[in-house]
Amino acid sequence: MASGDLQRVFGANLRALRQSRGLSQEQFADIVGVHRTYMGGVERGERNMTLKSVEFLCEAVGVDPVEMLRPAKSGAANTPARGPHARKQ
Question: How many CA atoms are closer than 13 Å to the CA of 18, on its beta-carbon side?
C-alpha cells in the first residue's frame, strides 16, 4: 500500500456505509457527532485519522474498525454489517 491508502480506504468504506443507510453526509455527521466538513474530509481520505478517531467513528455506527480498513473487492466499497444507527428498510 502507498502512503495514505488506508485513510482513503477508510473514507470510501465510510461513505459506502453512509450511502447504504440512505443518509446525507450532514445527517451522518450528526449521528456520529462531528461537523459535516470534517466528515467530508474523512470520506475523501484527506484526514489523517488517529486510531482513536477510527475507533470512535466505528463505535458510533456499530461497525468493526478492521472491516472499515479492508480494501474493497472489485472496486466496490465494503458494506459493513448494520449497526445500531442503521435505517430500517
Answer: 23
